[in-house]
């Protein structure tokens, strides 16, 4: 069992006017994992990060980081936490090297030019070290934010929409950096609109909406439990009724009898097995088909489905 380094218990934030940004959130983060927090705009993701990083004062609940209650001893815990904010808020007139070195000093650490060089090189910023931040591209500015967050060598790193507004090539490079940080034992919590990134990188996924944490689970377990198989079978000749041998399957006639659509399975492979059995049953029933399109649901499908269920509740 991995060590717990962050625990939220009943975390609630109500802003003046009654907006409940966080609603009784319980969450445990384990050492060395990558945890992806998914949710639409206004779901509470940034408020949750702000509460842990000392930028937002919770209305109730407790936050324990590295064994410290943040309400009582936030300085020790905060020194081990890094934040890459969503907004590009940094001193635009500062040279890159000075800005990153200054961030290290803010946490009371002694200057370490070698470590700063390592960080800048890992982010392809070393050649830009003497340039003012304002002269950099948007992607490079975001890399500077990551460098500033890493300057004091945090054990827990928050990435709030780290690749928003970054081109595909830079996104790939930044995720390689995240993988390298995980390899050094840094625990990472990220929010992202690019769900395929969470699907690629995360060990666990949490889905938040309206300030409520709807679900937290291992990524693979979530996809196995909530995943579905969808198959469209194009028929050689239209049919008017379903063959009796297919009555036990979740399958419907579509397009005026020209195709069959199967929606079922549970993400464990049952769906693919059903589709194979359905094609065999069609052959036995004398129903010819010209093509099959099989698709497994993604993490994004699960995310959209959960939010839709909550909206309908």
UniProtKB/TrEMBL annotation:
Q: Which domain of life is it from?
A: Bacteria
Residue stretches making up the ABC transporter domain? 6-235
Is-annotated flag, keyword Transmembrane helix?
Answer: no
For molecular function, the Gene Ontology terms on record are: ATP binding
Entry keyword set: ATP-binding, Nucleotide-binding, Transport
For this protein, the record's InterPro entries field holds:
AAA+_ATPase, ABC_transporter-like_ATP-bd, ABC_transporter-like_CS, ABC_transporter_ATP-binding, P-loop_NTPase
Membrane-crossing segments per the record: none
UniProt xrefs under PANTHER family: ABC TRANSPORTER ATP-BINDING PROTEIN
Protein name stated in the entry: ABC transporter ATP-binding protein
What species does this protein belong to?
A: Qipengyuania gelatinilytica
